[in-house]
Amino acid sequence: MLNFALIGYGYWGPNVAKNLYKNKQIEFKYICDLRQDRLNLAKDSYVNEVNYTTKFDEVIADDNIDVVCLAVETSAHYELGKRVIEAGKHLYVEKPFTDNVAQAFELKKLAAEKGVKIHVDHIMIYHPAIVKIKEIMEAGELGDTIYMDCSRMNLGKVKNDVSAMWDLSVHDLSIIDFLSNGAEVKNVKSMGRVIYSKKPSVTFITADYGYFIANIKANWISPIKERKLIIAGTKKMLVYDDVDVLNKLIVYDKGFDVIKASDPMEYYEFVVKTRSGDAVIPQLDVGDALYNSLEHFRQCIINKKESLSGADAAIRVLTVLEEADKNMIISE
Length: 332
Ligand SMILES: NC(=O)c1ccc[n+]([C@@H]2O[C@H](COP(=O)([O-])OP(=O)(O)OC[C@H]3O[C@@H](n4cnc5c(N)ncnc54)[C@H](O)[C@@H]3O)[C@@H](O)[C@H]2O)c1
Fold this sequence. Notes:
The protein has 9 helices and 15 strands. It is of the alpha/beta class. The chain has a 9-stranded mixed sheet with strand order 14-13-12-11-7-10-9-8-15. The longest helix has 16 residues.
């Protein structure tokens, strides 16, 4: 049985803790946070079933710990991640992996030298709906992908250490990466508005992946909550609406049929005719994405395999974010 420790019990850490505790194949050994008030809160839930400490050093010095999960601010991922790997422990780290691509490459190299594994919590690729979409696409049901349109907006918690894009679009970029089997991005354009934060709180990315294009919106200043993905294919199209409790995923038999014009004198050689058939709501597995993410990493360690969201996938996602940051047109 592998022994896990959790660093960071702020907003997201309690969700990681809940799923570590729920997994009976995992020995959940430590909760560590710099803040005693957060540890007191954790004690209300886990009483004396885990150890509590404010000292990160104490956790990584413990030879019994195999895996360290980081749920700390993104700006601390690199420094703490490096120390976890140097201590010879497997690293589970919240998204986004690091603040930049160079740091991500460094951690990847270090992990290979130390013989430990990295798993970045690209949580959405472990969501039953996204797994189902991948199945649908791999079966060829959608045909060729024309575009993916992603939006993630809410009247959200405005952060200062990351932009809305680094905080939210990382989810959509990881979904695109997973569904396209790691397609390399060819061209990235972006625009952002800096308001209520030091970093852009409203961002738009458009990216060209060669055989499809993507539009990715991230927004903390929206009157409604939206978590939506539309994929248009040459055969069918689908909409995944994470906010819809009943019909999260709908596959539409809609599109265009291209017909050669019968009249050779017709102005266009080809005409397109809309096609509208049934809409199907596929059955989704029950299961929690975060639980699946942690369990996937546990199995990777046991079976000596690389994580689906290991350093390579995370580097592809960070590359788009970095490129988008570099050329972002900013409106203040
Ligand atoms: N997967 C998801 O869907 C998802 C959702 C929300 C947040 N996150 C990610 O989770 C991470 C944490 O976000 P958050 O909103 O919980 O942040 P937060 O600021 O609420 O919590 C971070 C906690 O880490 C603690 N901490 C920082 N440095 C520490 C150290 N050296 N030792 C021990 N404790 C330390 C802080 O005291 C704080 O309690 C971020 O990377 C964020 O992007 C992921």
